[in-house]
Structures are given as structure tokens and as C-alpha cells.
Write a structure and sequence with these properties.
This protein has six helices and eleven strands. The strands form three sheets. A seven-stranded mixed beta sheet has the order 5-2-1-6-7-11-10, with helices on both faces. The chain has a single domain, classed as 3-Layer(aba) Sandwich (Rossmann fold), CATH 3.40.50. Strand 1, helix 1 and strand 2 form a beta-alpha-beta unit. By secondary structure, it is an alpha/beta fold. InterPro entries: C56_PfpI-like, Class_I_gatase-like, DJ-1/PfpI.
Amino acid sequence: MMRLQGKKVIQLVSNDFEDLELWYPVHRLREEGAIVEIVGEKANEKYIGKYGVPIVSDTAFADINPGDYDAILVPGGWSPDLLRRFDSVLKMVRHFDEQKQPIGQICHAGWVLISADVLKGVNVTSTPGIKDDMTNAGAVWHDEPVVVDGHIISSRRPPDLPDYMREFIAVLEKSKS
């Protein structure tokens, strides 16, 4: 049984993403039947991860209507520092926050949610390296493999990916389409 049949997910991408933190969620969601669209600054562009693993975007930020999707994933690595510079990315994140639809963030991905100003009072985790950034943005930080606060699912780093995806899939499965 494909638990996520018919669900559509945006996987944001830019260069220097953490390879496992992008690819593992994409594969897990596709295994469950979700349609995962790789969305970068440009369509059909090759982006390279921190460890050299490439991915090609399907769609450009500017061509996305967030209302056509059920969830969004923000990868870790250094790409969140690039992603948060795009108003279109911040608008996407705010859309999913306003609609209470799943937002997945891992490692440094919290930087994007900080810039979108959606973390006040939200329980989260991240790589400990941005704990201060998260708390200064009003989040309540926890040092746990995964933290679920409503529609926001956060995780620390690659070893936590199984816990992260288990919880993200559970939230997405229950969410409205």
C-alpha cells in the first residue's frame, strides 16, 4: 500500500545541499507513492551537493504555485543560506505555514524558516550549530532526533533521517490534500 499516493511535495534545492538530507527524503517519499518535485532557482539546472552528488531541478521557484502541493522540504547543508535569499522561497514556506501543511526542515534548514519568520513559539530541533539562531527567532529548541510541532517537522542531522522521515510521512499522510 502506497501511503502517500496522490500527495505532491516540493523539495527545495540549491548548491551545497547536504547530499543525504536531500536524497534520503526524496527516495522515502517516492517509495510511499508521493510525487516529489525538485525545485531550484532555475528549471532543468544541475545542482551539486556538499559531497559531489548532483541533482537536476524539475521546476524553478518562480514557476511554483504552492497551492498545488501538499508539503515542502528544506534540505540541510549550506544551501539554506542560499535558499533564504529568495523571496519566492520564503513565500512558499509562509504559504505552507499559513495552510498548516507539512514543512520539513533538517540540520541548517532552520535558517530558511527563520528568514520566513514562522518559528515564534514553535518546538524545533536543528544542528546544534544554529541553536542560537533558532532560539533568537523565537523557537523552542530541543536536542532530539526529531521534533514534531503540528505541521513543522524538524531534525538534527543525517543519523536522524530514519526518525525524521517516519514522522514527516506520518504528518503528511494525515494532512489535507
